What does this fold into?
Amino acid sequence: MTEVGDRLVETDAAKRLAHVKGRIADACAACGRDPAAVTLVAVSKLHDVAEVAAMAACGQRIFGESYIQEALPKMEAAPAGLAWHFIGHLQRNKAKLAVARFALIHTVDNADLAGILQKRTAEAGLTQDICLQVNVAGESQKSGVDPRRLPKLAEAVAAMGALRLVGLMVIPPVFDDPEGARPVFARLRTLRDELASRLALPLPVLSMGMSGDLEAAVMEGATHVRVGTDLFGPRQR
It folds into this structure.
């Protein structure tokens, strides 16, 4: 790409980033929250490293990926100094590849996966931050632990010395009206509060909200919103 082309890409990226940050700020103002308490995870899955670099040049530092085989080479080629979060379904046979590569894994939803991460992380002499993904709405096509099984899973993970449980994550059903997702977000917050009390852990992270419903998520306490389309445009496979 030419220098002029690079500038155009960065200008477009800057506009998109400013728009999303403005939405977050407006939602925070509406519910009396500090925008600094909401972390924007730029979902770069199925977008190339040049798009990541353009967004990074505008100041974005945290990126989210969903596929290990796509993420790892992209992370190697991307500008230095970025933080990477894993936000997709993590297959057990790929779990070992995620260890020590991601600042936060959002999507642990079963004890077997947690056990693999624990083993590999302990062997490396490291600690891995994770969230538990909860299937709040009980959708059969989506990953996530059943809320009724959440306490047992959380207790097991909390006892794993190499894993640090920091919060919960949810992907809500798709609604025509983003406000339809608010009960799901509110339920995740309640589950987090109950779990924090039960385990005597702070559990500061609520990973919820995407391009279409981030305002509702912020108003229900989201600390991490995962935005792809509104930052990078439609994905191309």
